[in-house]
Amino acid sequence: MKTAENKALMVLFEPVWKNNPVMVQILGICSSLAVTVQLKTAIVMALALTLVVAFSNLAISALRNMIPRNIRIIAELCIVATLVIIADEILKAFMYDISKQLSVFVGLIITNCIVMGRAESFALANPPFLSFLDGIGNGIGYGSILVTVAFIRELLGSGKLLGFDVIPGAFYSAGYENMGFMLLAPAAFIIIGLLVWLHRTLFNK
Amino acid sequence: MSSNTKSILFAIVLCFVCSLLLTIASSGLKSYQVRNINLDRHKNLLKSAGLIDDQDNNAPAYIEKLYSENIKSLWVDSSGRIVKEPERGEKALPIYLYIKRTEIESYIVPINAQGLWGKINGYLALSRDGSTVSGFTVYKHSETPGLGGEIERSWFQKNFKGKKIVNKEGKFVSISIARGAVKDVVQEDLKANFVDGISGATLTGKFLSASMKDILKEYESVSVKFRQNMFKEIPGSSGAVNQE
Hints:
The complex is a heterodimer of chains A (205) and B (244). Chain A is built from 10 helices and 2 strands. Chain A has 205 residues and is mainly α. In chain A, α3 packs antiparallel against α4 (72-94). Chain A is globular, with a radius of gyration of 19 Å. Chain A starts with a helix and ends with a helix. Chain B has 6 helices and 8 strands. In chain B, the strands form 2 sheets. A 6-stranded antiparallel beta sheet of chain B has the order 2-1-3-4-5-6, with helices on both faces. In chain B, α1 packs across α2. The longest helix of chain B is centred in the first third of the chain and has 46 residues, at 3-48. Chain B is globular, with a radius of gyration of 22 Å.
């Protein structure tokens, strides 16, 4: 009983830090560059991806003994694609502005290596509940990086957080300027690079 | 059962279940999406007329109120005459008027243009002198994000404000997207007819310029009336123009 619980916790939390999909496996970089200009889009994207990974893991794991080996990739893709389109439809219905800003990147969750990677390496070999937790954990791992990067970029790039001004006006009159560079994709690359560095340094001690 | 038959059967069942789920999601959420799309169109109309700003975060009710109070939609025929909704022919053109108190401030032309990868939908507002652009917005497109997709950014759209669709002699020339910044690539006397282009999106600009010219040509008869100050009377609302 105890070990089962421990295992579940490990599955849930390992990808958040120790085996983070972005920082350790270097997956999902493309979207972390694209949607991290603002905190709001990053949070929505993180939520959408978490739900998609969790439910695709759940469905694939539940079907794992039925999926024929020779068409398993196609079957996985079919499930993932369905979930992504449903997520996109929900965003369009309830968060139209954000879905416009995210544009193709919601659809591109399908090609996010994290989703297929978890399906192949975890869901096919583990029971549904653990796979679901694994999906949530990986989603949080990905989301935490997204939110961190977006926090830094929005704060330094536009002086705002979640759309509210946080840098006091006095700073600007004292000569402070927003870093336009932070709004460009290369800035996200550099921040992610620094995060990976930080992670490796802390971890290899 | 051979493994091939099993694979095919599995694939069929999986596809069926997935398509069922998609149908439920799509039809169940349709009404919400349509409402959002209409709201977004109205918001863009108001934005092109300069009634709201990009930065503003307006409540849906406020948008609808502003829309119903200031914007009137009607149809005109090819000679620029207003036609009533039920009598309009196939060729009637939709047009929106921004009415400030009792004066027409500007008229707004829906831009349903051809882009590089698909349709570009937006609005071009022209002030009542019939030649000056007072605003431009895009609410739907399928251009590449980061390249042609920049047409939805405010720096590009603000670019249009104050530009002219006529040349120095007052003849219609439309408005074009330059290949680069206007101040570098366009000669002095044509600057009023060009807006800054998007780097990496030459083709989007080319297609949008061409379509815009075609559209504005169709509306030229209306613009001429505005230029001659003949488009005066405020007609009773002829009902909502259902575009698309």
